[in-house]
Amino acid sequence: MKRKKTVLAVAAHADDLEFMAAGTVARFVDEFDYNVYEYILTDNSKGSYRLSPQTLIEVSAREAGEAGVLLGLREVRLEGYRDGRLNEVHPNVLRDKVMAFIREVKADIIMSWDPFAPYEDHPDHRMTGMAALEAAAFSGNPLFHPGHANPPRPVTEAYWFAKHPMNAELFVDISATIDKKIAALLAHDCQMVLTVDALLQEAQTLGVELPMLENLDDNGHKDLIAAGVRRWCAELGEPRGMAFAEQFRYEKLGMLDRVFGTDFVKPDVIQ
Asked: Which domain holds residue 48?
């Protein structure tokens, strides 16, 4: 019998997890009965071309909770740092908060942005990934943040999001969970509107006419996003004999397997 694990997904923004890893998370929950928690570090206040920051904060928080329910998450926790300004928070403060969450829920697996991914343009992603890495690397050490309410707890695995793939050699078959991934993503309606607005702005800048973007009905943005996500995940899966896939840089944390030549730590959602 597989050991039941706990997963902590650390995201910068409210839709990060759904775009990059919701199919895998759904497998963790549905197939393995794992407890999955999500920690969103920013308030998402820059995620719209239409809504005011304060309205957006409220709408995005509600939609994040709805997406979490669809995926079966144990909790969606919002930290509320200013969107786009996470680099103004001291790295030790971010590490402290993520490490406290790891220890609180006794996380075995961390999921987040790859702290070493090339070409990452978003400062929030870079800060989130490094905070997650440092917190997971040292959460078992009692001298790191000794004031925490819960005892030290080592994390043994990391699934790093592959926005710009480099050494991202784990492809997870999400053929059975693609519909749940898309449903959870579309729950972030304000972010899906933003995505389509950004695409339209880019097309207009290039002088490209795309009626599919310009003449959308009320739910047209959802259909467009759903089709795009299916295409993206199908392109990842097809060369590997999967209908749909997600991609990660998988990393063993800790030293046990390396020291003893064992294979205790390995991904449950194997290739």
From this structure: 6-260
**265 lies in some domain:** no
In eight-state DSSP terms, residue 244 is S
Report the domain count for the chain. Answer: 1
CA–CA dist 233, 36 (Å, integer): 22
Residue bearing tokens 């999955």: 36
- Cα 15 from Cα 107, distance rounded (Å): 21
Please state, in angstroms and rounded to a whole number, the distance separating the CA atoms of residues 7 and 107: 5
Please report, for the domain that includes residue 77, its CATH number.
Answer: 3.40.50.10320
Sequence-distant (≥ 6) Cβ neighbours of residue 243 within 8 angstroms: 173, 175, 178, 234, 237
Q: Tens of pLDDT along 133-169?
A: 999 999 999 999 999 999 999 999 999 999 989 899 9
Q: What residues in the chain have per-residue pLDDT under 50?
A: 271
d(CA 200, CA 210): 8
